[in-house]
Design goal:
The complex is a heterotetramer of chains A (102), B (784), C (411) and D (175). By secondary structure, chain A is an all-alpha fold. Helices cover 75% and strands 0% of the residues of chain A. About 5% of the residues of chain B have low confidence. Among the domains of chain B are: 307 residues, no CATH class; 104 residues, no CATH class. In chain B, 56% of the residues are buried. Chain B is 68% helix and 4% strand. With 784 residues, chain B is mostly helical. Chain C has 411 residues and is mostly helical. In chain C, helix 2 packs across helix 11, helix 4 packs antiparallel against helix 5 and helix 6 packs parallel to helix 13. Chain C is globular, with a radius of gyration of 24 Å. Chain D is mainly α and 175 residues long. Chain D folds into three domains: 89 residues, Four Helix Bundle (Hemerythrin (Met), subunit A) (Up-down Bundle); 33 residues; 44 residues. In chain D, helix 2 packs antiparallel against helix 3. Chain D is globular, with a radius of gyration of 21 Å. Classes of the chains: A mainly alpha (102), B mainly alpha (784), C mainly alpha (411), D mainly alpha (175). Chains in contact: A-B, A-D, B-D, C-D.
């Protein structure tokens, strides 16, 4: 069976790549994709740990299920916000919507 | 646990106590408070001494919604009251409650890694007495508020807020751990903010609200530090686990504190908590918010000053008392730093506030300062180990101070009524709005739309109210006497006397702090008696000094009834609450009220472990005589100055002549620093600290801008406190400091989330690195 | 499993042929994969013929009858013609995606076949979550449409894609909800178990509403009439795949036909008892026949529907879904869950596998479904009446000559 | 420790999917392509779930992420059409972010994963039990009153709220 740490490593990789996307992309939609990647990496971890450490305890899968829910909600609301921003400012570049300061 | 044994089992009952008001809050907010937006006319928004806000679109709750809300709020608090009565009944039945058994139950609340954090309720003697006082006072205030707020368009909202307030206070009282207590504490902070700023259309009101909020916040942060530190040290915050655990206490007392070398951990935690209390129950130097808090409606003042908030501060101290005591023994003159701090701050505040109160003309301001001073009494008492005396005074004070506030409230109400009457009679300055105002409420006090603005709270405008408002007069008199500690028959006398007796005991054994406390408290007791008499004299005695005062009354019907009933009930307690704590060795009275033992004392002392309990005092004449002298002396002086020759209209207050140059200073609450300094602190210290401040002040702002070492930042925070000290809290030190700070950190706020995230990520990595380095994982990793 | 070489146990045959076990397994699996992947391809050609024939019969025509016996080879000829057509890639198209789309289009359909139990023994992969797998794979279908419509750089295609995706996403809701009901009754997500659970009673009797829902939703999912808006020539020319030509378009088309057929297959499996039939335990291979027959019934019914019912408007489509199907299926789920609990509570749940053990539960559920139908019907009737009254109020009809007309028709 | 069998081959394949897909997501200029890469990466994750004998999770992954979220994203991309191909896709801090992300990865790998779960890490020795809970158990756990029914309900509430919120936010108030 594939050792656990490999799953974890891949998950970590996906997470970091997603984080990079979130930190560096200009397009809000792309940022959202990065967030999805990060959430997904978390899910991989949850399931992997569930399988290798506590396969008889539902916690891992249950939490993964909740992460799905969160991801769905986050995507829906986030995209809605992006679209309404685009409608009002004709732009989804995050630098263009940094008025909320000082 | 099903509902049935939840109700039947007294261990679960405490859970239900706060539920009523909290539920009421949600129900009112979500359901019954049906408000429609209308353009305000003075009648909808006629309110206590602040200009109306004609033209604004304001929410006005429908009549039905208003009545519903009142019902809900009232039933909530009454439910809480009944439940607590049940609990109290059962608690009193138990022999030596607290020593062996206490009521309460805990549930695991959050599992933090290895340790589980329990939430729970606890009923021990201290809680019991609080449960006697708080719900009763709250209920009275609620009833009172029905009448007092009857003309306010946002009455429903008001009831929601005070319900939340009461709920928070009850939570705090029944909490069995410091965190739950802190939760209640903070919710109350929020409520006080909302309620002080209830008439937010008034600039002064919302400013006062913000002031109160921020001031207490400063203290609360420090208190939270203490809580966190305590949790770090002990791994639990449950009172009984910590305070009924000799080992833990001694450990706390003997481990030196972090980065405050000299202190023990217990002392540091204690000081942190005390600072929290200083903020909450308005002790010097953080007392500044309390007088301004008078901007809120009077029931709120009563709530904050008597029933709930300020008591909460003292209650917290009493609750955690063994912690402060740990490592010392006040009964043998061994005062730990926190105790010392309390003794000094408390006694000083008592005197300080009393002197200010002497020169106030605003009927509520006087009471505000008297509150500060009375709380000073309690703090001082705690400082010298007079644990039970403090608790006793807390209770009695709550009763008579609530009484006084509500009485003054009805005085104000009456004055406004009179004022309205005057306006009406002279027939100028009232329009259609005013008409329908009178149509749908018998005495819409619309002081809004006529100039010059008449101040219904200024005692100089009153006088002779005893004729028009007899009930208020009698009750106010009772309350006042109780506050002044009129010998033998008032509650205030017994509690104060006990404090003085404790102090005297220490003094006879030659302990410095006790002596200080004794002298200062005696003087402030004298002043208290004096200004109380002055207030009563100015308000009720003599002849009416203004038209308004001549016609001041509470009118008829439900309003006047709801506003007088609580007064009468509380007046009863203001007298008789004292007799539960009569020391048995007291001549005559002792044999009457406590033949065998001092019931209050015997009951409450079991809150502590047996070896921490103070011993029964042997009766001594000197303190009793002292309290006689100061009380009667003060009252007498007041009588001479304000009763025998009542103030005539237009005549200036005799205080002005007597105090001379001091008068404006007192009137302005020592606003002038030099005088403040000369009167209070030893000049040398002051001089030194001034220099230090100047010097450090410059250094700090530089220090921060150039990011000098953190020690300077720490000194800076310390000096920030000193600053508030010197310039009476509102000094310019903090604003500048904060402004510079903000100006510096402002540039971090680019409005770009990604940058923030980047910072977060970097920080996380750094922390992880530190953690990894400390726990040697990296080493392992390189190894494996 | 018995160790004799038979159609049910090809591995054994290979082993008897002296092949090493691993290789034998691999070979059988590969064989199965190839089979399951190619059979659909072949079926399509036949399906098209059937479709055209039936459409023709319904519309009183003859249909293809030139090429081959009964025109059987007509669609073969069409296929050949299609393959020989030029393969166009429009300018500015996103090449990679543009070429990817048809592959996904067909693959998604073929993937579904992996979980279809043809006989007690023959199933691609008896996943424990078969039905969920079906839903998941079906949901990928939206991707193909999206990228096809987007990548061909054509406004019509994009519009068509949007519209189609709106339709597919909307109709996934009642689809999944109606699938929930057999799952609840059978207590499993696996296809094979699902079929076994229908041994003595088909689910269509226990959950007719769900069956109807499933059928309608599938019509919409597969874009068959009356829901074939994705190729509404009159409005958006030919939908998302307008730019495709030749073989790629062929894959789209084949994919759609396959999808329709697969839907019928699933309906047969989930509601009509799959391969169950007389003697199927003794001769598992019979399962193919029974399943084929049941599927044919469903599919042909769909065809007749297609050639009789006119196409709906997009707003009607959405209204039908969100105002009727979704609420009804939600109600259906609630009712069924409740009834199942009740049945279980009062001990009517089937203990043994035989027919009569299942009867009470079936009756209860049936009654529940009928009540639901009645409720829906009532609502519909009231609505219709209100509508009619409104119309009559708008422009009253002459009542006196109406009966005359009827009479005239009568005689 | 890592013999080459069907499982490990599948693992490598899926790992390539998810990592490559992820890289594609953050590097491609064309957002539609990025979305497709995202789908690829999510497929990889689904494959992992299958390998980890959580088929239900795999199916839900495909259903929710690819069937719903990815489509949502594509919609968003298309509705913000002018933004689909930006001239420069990275902001000014991209280099620093790359360093930070890389550092984070190394830290996770070297600091946590390897020492704890690695070949001779502290937890390496534990054997993996062959019996695993099934989808039925998951379903039971989710509605078990002393397991996850409350979070479950809360999650459903959250979804509803999110749905309403999304509609309210995205609706065009002009008409």
């Amino acid at each position: 069976m594939v050792p656990l740490w490999m799953f974890l490593a891949v998950a970590a990789g996906v997470f970091c790549i997603g984080a990079y996307g979130v930190l560096s992309r200009r397009n809000a939609v792309a940022i959202l994709m990065g967030v999805e990647l990060m959430l997904n990496a978390v899910n991989i971890n949850l399931i992997a740990f569930w399988r290798y450490v506590e396969p008889l305890n539902m916690a891992g899968q249950a939490f993964a299920a909740f992460v799905f829910v969160i991801a769905a909600a986050e995507a829906a609301v986030g995209l809605a916000i992006i679209i309404s921003v685009y409608r009002s400012r004709r732009s989804v570049i995050v630098e263009d919507v940094d008025m909320l300061k000082w | 646990m099903n509902v049935n044994d939840l109700v039947s089992n007294v261990n679960f009952l405490p859970w239900l106590i706060p539920v009523g008001p909290l539920l009421a809050f949600f129900v009112i907010t979500l359901v019954t408070n049906r408000a429609k937006m209308v353009v305000a006319t003075s009648s909808e928004y006629a309110d206590h001494n602040h200009p109306g806000y004609m033209g604004l679109r304001v929410p006005v709750s429908s009549v039905s919604g208003r009545i519903l809300s009142i019902t809900v709020g009232l039933s909530g608090i009454i439910a809480a009251w009944l439940i607590s009565l049940t609990v109290v009944g059962q608690a009193l039945a138990v022999e030596h409650l607290g020593e062996s058994e206490v009521f309460g139950s805990t549930i695991p609340w959050m599992v933090t890694g290895i340790s589980t954090f329990n939430m729970g309720v606890l009923v021990d003697p201290l809680t019991t007495i609080m449960l006697i006082m708080v719900p009763l006072a709250c209920t009275m205030i609620f009833i009172y508020a029905i009448g007092y707020m009857a003309a306010d368009a946002r009455q429903a909202r008001f009831f929601a807020l005070i319900s939340l307030f009461a709920g928070a206070m009850l939570t705090l009282v029944v909490a069995d751990n410091l965190l739950l207590l802190f939760v209640g504490w903070e919710v109350m902070g929020l409520c006080s903010y909302l309620l002080i700023g209830f008439w937010f259309e008034k600039e002064s009101a919302y400013k006062a609200a913000i002031k109160a909020f921020t001031t207490t916040r400063v203290a609360d942060v420090i208190m939270m530090l203490g809580i966190v530190y305590l949790y770090m040290m002990t791994g639990t915050l449950s009172f009984r686990d910590i305070l009924h655990n000799e080992v833990m206490l001694s450990v706390l007392a003997n481990t030196p504190a972090v980065l405050f070398g000299g202190l023990s951990a217990a002392s540091l935690i204690g000081i942190f908590l005390i600072i929290g209390t200083i903020g909450k129950s308005a002790q010097f130097p953080l007392h500044v918010w309390l007088p301004d808090a008078m901007e809120g409606p009077t029931p709120v003042s009563a709530m904050i000053h008597a029933a709930a908030m300020v008591s909460a501060g003292v209650y917290a101290i009493i609750r955690m008392y063994p912690l402060f005591e740990a490592g010392g023994n006040p009964h043998h003159g061994l005062l730990t730093p926190p105790l010392m701090l309390m003794a000094v701050v408390g006694s000083f505040t008592a005197l300080f506030a009393a002197t200010i109160a002497v020169a106030q003309n605003d009927v509520k301001k006087v009471l505000a300062y008297s509150t500060i001073s009375q709380l000073g009494f309690m703090m001082a008492a705690l400082g010298i180990g007079a644990y039970i005396a403090a608790a006793f005074h807390l209770i009695t004070h709550a009763f008579f101070k609530a009484l006084l506030f509500m009485a003054s409230g009805s005085v104000i109400h009456g004055m406004e009524h009179g004022d309205h009457h005057v306006q009406h009679a002279h027939g100028h300055g009232h329009d259609d709005a005013a008409h329908d105002a009178h149509a749908h409420d018998d005495h819409g006090h619309d002081d809004a739309h006529h100039a010059p603005h008449f101040d219904p709270q200024d005692m100089l405008n009153m006088g002779g109210l005893r004729k028009t408002m007899p009930v208020t007069f009698i009750t106010f008199l009772i309350g006042g006497l109780s506050l002044a500690g009129f010998p033998l028959i008032t509650a205030g006398f017994w509690s104060k006397d006990e404090i003085l007796a404790d102090a005297w005991k220490g003094l006879t054994e030659g302990f410095g702090p006790h002596a200080l406390v004794f002298v200062l408290l005696a003087v402030s007791a004298f002043l208290t008696a004096f200004y109380t008499m002055r207030q009563i004299g100015l308000t009720f005695w003599g002849e009416a000094r203004t038209e308004q005062a001549k016609h001041a009354n509470l009118g008829q019907g439900i309003v006047s009834f709801t506003m007088t009933l609580p007064l009468v009930i509380l007046a009863f307690f203001a007298i008789f609450a004292g007799f539960v704590g009569v020391p048995p060795t007291f001549p005559i009275f002792g044999s009457i009220f406590s033949p065998s033992e001092n019931p209050f004392f015997e009951f409450v002392k079991n809150t502590l472990l047996s070896e921490q309990q103070p011993g029964e005092l042997t009766f001594a004449w000197f303190p009793v005589l002292t309290s006689f002298t100061v009380a009667l002396g003060g009252l007498g002086l007041g009588y001479l100055m304000y009763w025998r020759k009542p103030l005539q209209a237009g005549e200036t207050d005799p205080m002005v002549k007597i105090l001379g140059g001091l008068y404006p200073i007192l009137k302005n609450k020592y606003y002038i620093d030099e005088v403040y300094v000369r009167v209070f602190v030893k000049p040398s210290q002051v001089f030194a600290s001034v220099v230090v401040v100047r010097f450090m002040d410059g250094r700090i702002i530089d220090g921060i801008l150039h990011g000098i070492a953190r020690v300077f930042i720490w000194i800076g925070d310390f000096l920030k406190l000193l600053n508030m000290w010197l310039i009476d809290g509102v000094g310019d030190g903090i604003p500048e400091y904060v402004a510079a700070f903000g100006a510096y950190f402002r540039r971090f706020q680019t409005g770009r989330v990604q940058q923030y995230l980047l910072w977060v990520a970097i920080a996380a990595i750094l922390i992880a690195l530190v953690f990894a380095a400390s726990s040697g994982w990296l080493v392992q990793a390189s190894g494996g | 499993m018995n160790d004799v070489c038979s159609i049910n146990n090809l591995t054994q045959c290979l082993l008897d042929g002296g092949v090493s076990p691993d290789l034998a397994n691999l070979l059988t699996i590969l064989g199965g994969v190839v089979l399951v992947a190619t059979v659909p391809l072949v079926t399509v050609i036949f399906l098209i013929w059937i479709e055209r024939k039936i459409a023709a019969r319904v519309q009183d025509r003859l249909g293809p009858n030139r090429v081959g016996p009964f025109g059987l080879l007509q669609s073969v000829a069409d296929a050949v013609k299609m393959l020989t057509k030029e393969d166009i890639t429009p300018m500015g198209a996103d090449k990679f995606i543009y070429n990817l789309a048809p592959i996904i289009a067909f693959a998604t359909v073929v993937l579904i076949w992996a979980i279809i139990p043809f006989t007690p023994l023959h199933i691609g992969a008896d996943l424990s979550i078969g039905i969920l797998y079906f839903v998941a794979v079906a949901s990928i279908g939206t991707v193909k449409i999206m990228i096809a419509g987007w990548s061909s750089n054509n406004k019509y295609a994009l519009l068509g894609a949007f519209r189609t995706i709106a339709q597919l996403l909307s109709y996934e809701v009642p689809l999944v909800l109606s699938l929930l009901i057999p799952v609840m009754i059978a207590g499993t997500l696996g296809m094979q178990d699902m079929v076994r659970a229908q041994g003595s009673m088909w689910f269509v009797f226990m959950a007719p509403v769900a069956a109807v829902m499933f059928f309608i939703a599938n019509l919409a999912e597969t874009g068959r009439a009356p829901f074939d808006l994705l190729e509404a020539e009159s409005e958006i020319i030919a939908g998302y795949n307008i730019e495709y030509s030749g073989f790629k378009w062929g894959m789209f088309m084949a994919g759609e036909f396959m999808h329709a057929f697969t839907a019928a297959l699933l309906a047969a499996v989930i509601f009509l008892g799959g391969w169950w039939g007389p003697f199927v335990e003794q001769v598992p291979a019979l399962g193919f026949v029974y399943l084929g027959l049941k599927t044919a019934v469903v599919y042909i019914f769909g065809l007749i529907l297609r050639s009789t019912v006119p196409r709906v408007r997009i707003d009607q489509l959405m209204a039908l879904n969100w105002k009727w199907l979704v609420p009804i299926s939600v109600a259906n789920v609630l009712i069924t869950a409740l009834l199942l609990k009740v049945v279980d509570a009062i001990g009517l749940a089937p203990q043994s596998g035989d027919f009569f053990a299942h009867l009470p539960q079936t009756l209860v559920l049936l009654v529940g479904n009928l009540v639901l139908m009645f409720g829906v019907a009532t609502v519909l009737r009231n609505r219709g009446r209100a509508q009619r009254l409104a119309d009559e109020a708008a422009h009253p009809v002459e009542h006196e000559d109406a009966p005359v007309v009827v009479g005239a028709v009568g005689h | 420790m890592f013999e080459l069998n069907a499982q490990s081959i599948a693992f490598i394949l899926f790992a390539l999917f998810s990592l490559g897909g992820a890289l594609g997501v953050v590097t491609t200029r064309n957002l539609i392509h990025a979305t497709l890469y995202l789908i690829l990466s999510l497929f990889g994750a689904a494959g992992f779930f299958v390998l980890l004998s959580a088929p239900f999770m795999a199916a839900v992954q495909v259903l929710v992420y690819i069937g719903a979220i990815a489509i949502l994203i594509v919609f968003a991309v298309m509705l913000t059409r002018s933004m689909t191909r930006l001239s420069d896709i990275y902001n000014s801090q991209w280099l620093l972010s790359a360093i930070v992300a890389g550092l984070l990865f190394v830290l996770l790998l070297v600091g946590v994963i390897l020492p704890v779960w690695g070949v001779n890490g502290t937890q390496a020795g534990r054997e993996v039990s062959s019996i695993v809970t099934t989808t039925v158990d998951l379903g039971k756990a989710l509605v078990d009153q002393n397991q996850y029914v409350l979070p479950f309900e809360v999650a459903s509430l959250l979804l509803t709220a999110a749905m309403i919120g999304a509609i309210v936010v995205a609706r065009d108030d002009k008409e």
